[in-house]
Write a structure and sequence with these properties.
Number of helices: 12
Structural class: alpha+beta
Number of domains: 2
CATH topology of the largest domain: Glutamine Phosphoribosylpyrophosphate, subunit 1, domain 1
Oligomer: single chain
Distance between the termini: 56 Å
Radius of gyration: 24 Å
Order of helices and strands: HEHHHEEHEHHHHEEEEHHHEEEEE
Shape: globular
CATH class of the largest domain: Alpha Beta
Helix content: 25-40%
CATH architecture of the largest domain: 4-Layer Sandwich
Largest sheet: 8 strands, mixed
């Protein structure tokens, strides 16, 4: 055999086959019969003892270490091979990025909303127990992924929001800080406010367009990293036992309307897990992902036997086809935004795909060979902007 078979499965299937001939499993030979009956067709039962563990995330899971020696995917992978629960391992990795002030799209120092307040979203799903938890518009806690995990463990709910999420975090013993801005995030917010000119209110449509345009101008000028403007971390993994989980955490769209929640804390959009199939999660334009519930769609494509890369590209085609508003299209008639998916299946196969392999070019993977950065597979050539 090229693959190992569990002893109990081998004995059970062997015994079943011998019982068909009326023998006990210990009899050494088959009886000689004049006419041999047709052997019934039985499936080959080869049950692998384990899969090779893997941790997959967006590029921030490789770039940021918060002054330590390990990045997110390394930390999560090391805990998995030590035997930790898959969700505990992932959250410990994501916490590195949430606490790193240099990553201004996630956690502490994440770019704030229009009022200068850092509001954080996060969700997690635990495949083995089929449970999930999430928080949205949470203020004052650097590690919203830990609060999302507490929602999973301590409540009968999937999502807590705003002041209620903060009150819950306080009751669970989390430290509530008055302000999660860093000097850098506050400086960038003040620059954005200066450009928008808040003392002269335009009509709602023009004001929203002016705010987005000012933010994107700051990206083009190099004041804000494009990954931070839409900043999110997603991380998922499969263990040697085949257990799967996922975590997503973000400060959301930079300078967003107060109270806005994107796809990150929403099951089926920002992430989705089925322990018998695989996991998927996203970064990029949350509204496009929400409209299509792409993470759920990807996992269902995995269930049909598609490879993670093919499942992710099919989800992007669906988003592309459903993007019809002119304001969301560039001069080529293509989506004027980026969206990325990070996918793992039950076999430990993985992929990172994007609407455009532009701006953020890579994603992070950690296996037994260590952590590395791999190129994203783009659906459309070029970049979202003209």
């Amino acid at each position: 055999m090229t693959e190992k078979m569990h002893r109990r499965e081998f004995v059970r299937t062997s015994a079943a086959g011998l019982a068909f001939w009326g023998q006990s499993p210990t009899m050494p030979t088959m009886p000689t019969m004049p006419t041999m009956p047709t052997m019934p067709t039985m499936p080959t039962m080869i049950v692998p003892r384990s899969v090779k563990p893997v941790v997959v995330s967006d590029d921030s899971g490789f770039r940021y270490k918060n002054g330590g020696r390990e990045c997110c995917v390394e930390k999560a992978f090391s805990r998995i091979v030590e035997g930790a629960d898959v969700l505990d391992a992932l959250v410990s990795g994501v916490n590195i990025v949430e606490n790193d002030p240099e990553e201004s799209g996630v956690g502490y120092g994440g770019l704030p909303n229009e009022d200068g307040i850092v509001q954080l979203d996060s969700a997690c799903m635990h495949g083995p127990t089929k449970r999930a938890g999430g928080v949205a518009a949470l203020e004052g806690v650097r590690t919203p992924s830990l609060v999302a995990k507490a929602v999973l463990e301590q409540t009968d709910h999937h999502l807590l929001v705003g002041k209620g999420a903060q009150d819950f975090a306080r009751r669970m013993g989390f430290t509530i800080e008055n302000d999660l801005n860093t000097e850098k995030s506050r400086r960038l917010w003040l620059e954005w406010k200066r450009r928008v000119d808040p003392e002269h209110y335009l009509d709602p449509k023009k004001r929203a367009e002016a705010g987005l345009r000012a933010g994107l101008d700051m990206v083009r000028e190099g004041l804000i990293d494009t990954n931070h403007f839409w900043g999110t971390i997603h991380c998922n993994a499969v263990t040697p036992k085949g257990d799967i989980a996922a975590v997503t955490s973000t400060s959301g769209l930079s300078f967003k309307i107060s109270g806005r929640a994107g796809d990150s804390p929403i099951l089926g959009a920002g992430l989705y897990v089925d322990n018998e199939v695989g996991a998927a999660g996203s970064t990029g334009r949350g509204e496009a992902n929400l409209y299509n519930l792409s993470s759920f769609f990807i996992v269902e494509e995995l269930r049909r036997g598609r490879h993670p890369k093919d499942a992710g590209l099919e989800a992007l085609r669906r988003v592309r086809a459903n993007t019809v508003e002119k304001r969301l299209l560039n001069s080529r008639g293509e989506p004027a935004f980026n969206l990325r998916f990070f996918i793992t299946n039950k076999k430990g196969e993985y992929a990172g795909v994007a609407m455009y392999a532009a701006e953020e070019l890579t994603y992070a993977v950690c296996t037994e060979n260590g952590a590395r950065s791999l190129p994203l597979e783009g659906l459309i050539t070029g970049a979202p902007t003209d």
